[in-house]
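May I ask for a single protein's sequence together with how it folds?
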Amino acid sequence: LLTLFDDGAMIEEAARRFMSVVGAEPIWTSAGPVAVRLQVGCAVASKGVETIACIRQAEEALEEARAPGAG
């Protein structure tokens, strides 16, 4: 999740709203409806942080979101 928010609670709320909207309705395909489920990981980049470090943080956040029992 890319966001301008730097507040953890605001980021979490934005992610929850995004997941709710995406998962609310199935996607219709030629084979019929497909349910959508997703996980969101987020990292906040600070000034001076190298791009690769931010990508690493985002990957770790996504792995955490994918963990059993997460969100």
